[in-house]
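Intended use. Records such as the UvrD-like helicase ATP-binding domain-containing protein entry shown here are meant for training and evaluating sequence-to-structure methods. They are not intended to support clinical decisions.
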Amino acid sequence: MQRPSFSIYDASAGSGKTYALVKEYLKIILVAHKNDAYRNILAITFTNKAVHEMKSRIVGSLSEFAKDEPSTKAEDLMKDLAIETQLSIIQIKSKSQQIIKHIIHNYAAFDISTIDKFTHKVIRAFAHDLNLPMTFEVTLDTENLLTEAVDAIIAQAGEDEVLTKLLVDFTMEKTDDDKSWDISREILETGRLVLNENNRNEITHFQDKSITDFLTIKTKLNKLYIDLEKENVEFANEALLFIEKNGIDPKSFSRGTFPNHLQSISDGKFNPKNKMFREFEDVSINKTAKDTAIIESIIPDLLQTLDAIYKNFEKRDFYKAFLKNITPLSLLNTVSNELAKIQKEQNVLSIAEFNAIIYREIQNQPAPFIYERLGERYRHFFIDEFQDTSEMQWQNLIPLIDNATSSEIDGEKGTLMIVGDPKQSIYRWRGGKAEQFIELSKDNNPFNNPEKVLEHLDKNYRSYSQIIDFNNAFFQLLSSEFENADYKDLYKNHSHQKTNDKKGGYVNISFLPETDPNEGDEEALDKTEQYLLATLNTIQKVKQQGFEYKEMVILTRKRSQGIAIANYLTEQRIPLLSSETLMIQNATEVRFIIQVLKYLKNNSDLEAKAHFLLYIAEFIQDKMPVHDFIAMGMEEQHEQAFENWLMSFDILLSFQDIRKKSLYEAVEIIVSKFLSPTLSKGKGDNVANRADDKGKVLGYMTGGNYSHLLIEKAQEMRKNPTDAEKILWSEIKSKSLDYKFRQQHLIDSFIVDFVCLSQKLVIEVDGEYHLTQEQIQLDNERTIVLNNLGYKLIRFTNKQVIENVSEVLEKIKQELSLQEEILNSSSPVSAPAPSGRVGSGNAYVQYFLDIVLERDVRNQAGISDFLNYWDKNAEKFSIPSPEGKNAVRIMTIHKSKGLEFPVVILPFADEDYSRKPKDKLWLNAEVEVFGLPKVLIDNSSAVEGYGEVAKLVYDQKKQEELLDNINVLYVALTRAEEQLYIISQMIKPKKDGDYPANMASFFIRYLIRSHVFEEEKLEYEFGTPAKLSSENKKIDEVKAIALVREILNPKNIKIAQREALMWGTHQQEAIEYGNVVHEILSYVKTKSDVDLAITKAVEGGLITFGQKNIVFKTIQNIVNHQELENYFSEENIVWNEQTIIQKEGKTIKPDRMVLTKDNEIFLLDYKTGTHNSKYQLQLENYQNAIEKMGYKVAKKALIYIGQQINVINF
């Protein structure tokens, strides 16, 4: 089998591109002689989800091939592979078994990744060669890095004279233009230019320019601007004088327009939008004029003068546009340098820098060294979603791929397969350009190997025929919108798709009634409300046809539109999944933590205090009404009094102690004090934590010492399970029950053995003592409480579990199924709510903790710094969308790319695509004048007046924007499988009969072309609105891996852990016990430090909570020992574990040195085991070293720590 060296697959939406990729990948590894051919393949895509899908498809296919009875789908693929590879089915089966086994044991070499991950791997491997720190961390947070850089630049005002002048002048310019004096936004925009790949080539021209250079250019620009205006006034005056000298009466010109035009230029009132006189026919002469002949004779000269004037105006306006952007542009290098400095200080590397680093390195290198090793490994390349590959990413990959496709190893050439669709290119702003794919699809080939094959995947396997037919006709029509030949060809000749065997489907286009644009903002608000109502009506209509909520998606172009829909549908009690419902900042628990942090930052913040009290009133205390609780708490103005008041509600905490902790420790304390029942459920358990009539959370209470003891006890019980609990937990952990369980979990004031929170099922494994009358009564009470909380409880004896665990598991399975039926019938399925009142919120808190930890570790952030960071970035963070929930999804069109849904609803389909985005344009400049080949200006229609070259740039930009807008629409309309609903607004044609540049006009023109449009009709249907699909496919089905049982001799197993945590086994007990006490004593300087030292030991995991009392007693015996009283006195200076460097360079470290007020030293060393004379010699060595330093050692002693304390004085 010979594959082409370079194959391009043009894959329209739903055409089975992933299937094609997987099939080609499988062909390579199945025909290879070795079982590890996958090691030589690099597959690149652009999202983690796409990586997961591709890996799953490949591994899943191999796994199915290896079975005796593969699925029908797998059989079809095997047959295709057998034909194309000329292998038999038996050979494919056998080879698949070998490959899948090899992949499992070498999964890291199964290289399918995002392009960013691959680039990161390359940079990490060659960090030293690229002059990067070996330990750098990757950051996605480029916006915050830029903000820090801008703040640092502005902070330099007053220090750097040149920079200060620039910033002050810029501020004054903005004020003169009646704009905000805050210049940080413009500088931030400049910083974004630095990191945006689209500007890399242009920015290189500015790298050698200083702020002084730009100030010089600015001065020259201002002078040129003024000179051009003066010259035009002179030209205009000369033209008027010329008319006068020739004795021409101004009234001879029709309405005097021509001389008036010249006069307006002379007066400095010229408007480029006014009529211009460029041709002879443009100058109108009155029919009654007596001097017509003279006028006609001088018109050519006048037009020539005007032509010079107009060209001057073009230059003037160009200079003005450049002047507007020159100040931020002059800070390019300053921002870039500051950004590099911050990254170096924080030891981070922005992901936006990855491609640029490699790009710079491979330029002008015939054989780029960073690819030398990789080039030998990778022989075959797959690039998915190629239209999203930026130009720089592609240029970086070319040398690596060229090396593989141009050479042979064992007679086999390397290959490249790229798959993409330029119609789905919607990421131009980050470097992904449809033009790159279009050029490759034509004659362009960047490789030395000329072999290239282009395949068109033109059959749609996703959608029903009605939707395919609609999209075919609709986008064929839109091809006429383009002037660019490539773009026109893309939609005219490459958007048509063949249908599959799914016949039917439904398309609905509806319009809101036309509104009068002069009626102001109130009418605009009404329009939004109409869209919301139309969306709700559509959902209800679809629901009546038998579709479930989870089969519907609402797509919006703007995030604000999605928010409006989410808010409205939530009010209408429609279950939702959207970026808003999943945002971490919207979770009640997270908002509570933020309010506590605000109070910790400033205890005079009454708003934060009130929110803090509100949460406690609603979810923790139940002694008084909410309002009264808040009112009383607000009256406690002093913090100490406030803490004492909280203590009366069993809430024990010290705000001052929390402030002393690191940021992460502070948040952990808040969580453990107030949110631990939620957090204990773990990530991903979407379980209702409902509130009873009193507002008390139906979980266990927190806030006091009682819950803390229960937590410690539960931890101890997890470490020391019974034999029966070990056996059952082993089975449960193996996922054989398909549900997630928790072990030794707190519910209310009880520790239950096992609980499945999602199905509210509790399992108890009872020992013999449960047969006593007293215990039976206690168990009954526990059962009643758990039942009231909504839990079902089942019990098994130790004997049942040990002797017949399979029967126990079967019983549990039955109860789980029963519970699932009960829960599904008793409560409606809804989206996970980010609130402690109706949702567990645990995932939100856990993700928030991750954010806090990362910020704390990377920036050593304090509370104030974190709160500033959170204010700017909170909206960026959300938890992953849970699969399978019966809820309507709301997402932006960009996020929907690559996905498919049975029903798609597209409201707000009336966007004005003629509006200019806020990006900038690079135009050619006069190098001899400015020393710059390019300048930056605003993207506006005024650019058309800057000359012919500028107009060409502007027109191309307009075409690119139109392509991007139509591509976005293409992505939206091709997500639907069965039904598509488009909600737009009716608009009327302009006077010339054409429609405004509005998306609504696309749909109106389509309806006109289809001969169904009626001016008064607002709804159009294509197909029949009925559900055609069968039962829903199961999402993310969990498949349990059976437990592999082995008979192992426990004596052959040694678990490495701290022996001190095994007290009670007697082995090395004294030695290990002494070592731990020794370490804790290093925290103790005086007797008053003992409590804090014990707490620190527990928090640090040195001892467990259960060991706390015995260690405390031992240390108290030491510090209060009658022979050691002077060693732990409050009035002495103490050094614990202090290193002393001796004259010869050797170091010693006495356990404890005490300097008394008499300037004498007491020496103390802690030992374990039996007395040894070498320890005495050690003390004497310490004494000699200390006395050489000029101190007198008055006392020295050894303490032997074991079951008893033994003090030996010397």
